[in-house]
Amino acid sequence: MSHSRFVFQRHVALNIASEEFARRRRQLMKMAGEDAVVLIATAPERMRNADAAWPYRQDSDFHYLSGFPEPDAVLALLPGRQHGEVVLFCRERDAERERWHGEFVGTERAVADYGMDDAFPIDDIDDILPGMIEGRARVYCHFGREPQFDAQLLGWMRRLRQLRGGGVVPKEFVALGHLLHDLRLYKSRAELKLMRASAAIAVEAHVAAMAMARAGRHEYEVEAELLRMMRSRGAVAAFPPIVAGGANACAMHYQANRAMLKNGDLLLIDAGAELECYASDISRSFPISGRFSREQRALYEIVLTAQEAAIDEVMPGRSYSTAHDVAVHVIAEGLCALGLIKGDPAEAIVQGSYKRFFPAKTSHWLGLDVHDVGDYRVDGEPRMLEPGMVLTVEPGIYIAPDDMTVPEAWRGIGIRIEDDVAVTRDGHDVLTADVPKQPEEIEAVLAGR
Ligand SMILES: [Mn+2]
């Protein structure tokens, strides 16, 4: 397969426009109501050890509403506020601190570049914010997530009571997730463009990894190739890549990536990129030697058939769970036909005996988070798919190395095939289709190494 189709277009403008962030805030304020306030904080900086921090990743909800990249900020949405509905508290410019940490955005540019109506130093938030909340009936926020924010929130309420004449404390505290996460479930045109770009980078990374994985190399060398490709395209890994040779693939969240690759084994790679906070998530399984064994090929074809059948069910008007039901059906049928499950497929499904080999769900939402927000069920029923939703389709078969219920040749084989699928108006669009997954195609690519 020619690699030229994987070339990433570096000059496409990818940023979400400031107007789109403003539209999201207006939508949320409309849902929250005139007498509400929405408060949302950035992700805290987290320390790895001593004074070394983990790479900073903005809170997805905060990013969705502001596009503001720094830690140490709080966004307040105040519907109807005369001096501006959208207020950001953030770090002030500070020559001495910037000498160490690099440039801060500062309050002026928060207004000029990020579309805030008003911005104040974060150090003044305890004095300013309580007065802004005064008289509002409801506070929408996340509570019980970040202890520091919880404590701040209670502090603002105490200050509010102490205001001249005794401030009126809001009657209700409402979990912000329900409103906000429903908005995030539907991806805009600009978001889909970013997700496509994120997917294209993950595609390149997988293709590059496939080209260099061979017996004698280690799982971490393949991981390094995935990361090299993502970073060289301006992305980061959406999660630590899973590079699992042989029976390591049977642990669905294998992370060690330490083993040496061996001929005769399959290699399962589950890796995705994150570009401007938008995730992709791809899994492929292929033979390290370049040729599937008979057993590997038989199981691979079942998983592939299940995945393709499940993807076919992704369209508006189908429920979220249909893809999983179809994948379960194909896998149960295949495993029965191979004699790995006794009895008939209908029985295997009713009794759940297929779960021994396929214990996971087939899909999850994808977006700013790899396992993105949004309810999977509405009023107890599986959610209907609608245009703009993006989900993964990732059935698998995993036969534990010590599974004595199957002949030895089948043990220690783990296979997962995962693509990212956007629901479109008349069906779906597979964002990650360019990583080979047909067995002949895989063997041809590997033969060209
Ligand atoms: Mn996934």
Protein architecture, described:
This protein is α+β, with helices and mostly antiparallel strands and 449 residues long. The chain folds into two domains: 17-183, Creatine Amidinohydrolase, Chain A, domain 1; 188-447, Creatine Amidinohydrolase (Alpha-Beta Complex), CATH 3.90.230.10. Helix content is 36%, strand content 18%. It has 13 helices and 21 strands. Strands 6-5-4-1-7-8 form a six-stranded mixed sheet, sandwiched between helices. Strands 9-12-13 form a three-stranded antiparallel sheet. A three-stranded antiparallel sheet has the order 10-11-14. A hairpin with a 2-residue loop joins strand 15 and strand 16. Helix 5 crosses helix 6 (147-161), helix 8 (189-212) packs antiparallel against helix 9 (219-232) and helix 11 (322-337) crosses helix 12 (345-351). The model is unreliable at 1-12 (pLDDT under 50). Bound molecules: manganese (II) ion (MN).
Short description:
This protein is an alpha+beta fold and 449 residues long.
Q: What's the structural domain tally? A: 2
Q: Which hetero compounds are present in the coordinates?
A: manganese (II) ion
Radius of gyration: 25 Å
Report the CATH architecture of the largest domain.
Alpha-Beta Complex
